[in-house]
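Most newcomers find our protein records easier to grasp once they have seen one. The structure tokens are whole numbers drawn from a learned vocabulary of backbone shapes. The record below serves as our worked example for the rest of this section.
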Amino acid sequence: MTTIDYKELELALDFVSGEAIVSATAYISRDSGKIYWESSELDEELPRDIEDSELYVQVPSKYELDLGKPLALKFAVERLSDSYSVVEGIFRSRGAYGRFKNFLESKNCLDDWYEFEDASVRAALTEWAESEGFTIKC
């Protein structure tokens, strides 16, 4: 199994999940574990065979791993069950994460959210990486 650095993988996840106007993609070499970054804002030379799924795997976005709205709703079910409908309402329009974090701060559980989110991201990335044949190095 090829080993990849967790922090690098997390950076790649953030890179491909960004809200920027520019689309971004990251690929991991199945052989070396090296991450290749692709964006119109970058000038990195990519291998010619980067889209060969036998050699490289594309890093998924947070949304592909259910780390967006579904994760916030899961947190609400587990930690704020009495406020679930409020949280669900927050996510019905744009700018939800800012309002969600303000709501969590008003409930004194913003730090709990960050811990929950970090643990969920780590678990999802580890599971994804292992399913693709990688080992995570912390």
